[in-house]
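We modelled the chain as a single entity of 136 amino acids. Its sequence is:
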Amino acid sequence: MAGEFAGSALVATWTTSTGTTNLQTDFRNVSYTPSLELIDATAGADQYRQSLPSFSGAEFSFAGIFPNTGTILQAQLKEGMTGTIVYQPAGTAAGFTKITMPAISMGAAYNQPYNDIVEIACTFTVYNGTVVYGTN
């Protein structure tokens, strides 16, 4: 199968009014999940549920190694921060997928196992705008 790529090709940024954070630097996992709300249009003699498409949405989730220096990452991921996620799963070469999403941070979560590396994670939800699917 042609066109496969490793997850390490990821380029992902979170840009807010206070700066741009490169999320791929110490990432462990990212995911992008589009969504669609449906309106129930079932009525009368319908034998099967009927639906109409309604609002679109999306979430971008990031998990990575928590750096032990500075507070820039924590400040950028603070709940309520608004900005733009740019997600390039295969990297920045011409023609590769690029998803741009106006977003709001739902806040950083921390995972600190007893005998393992500490992680930071954050989910971003589409916010007051349209997700743009394009290419580099």
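As a brief sanity check on the tokenised model: The radius of gyration is 18 Å. The first helix runs from residue 72 to 76.
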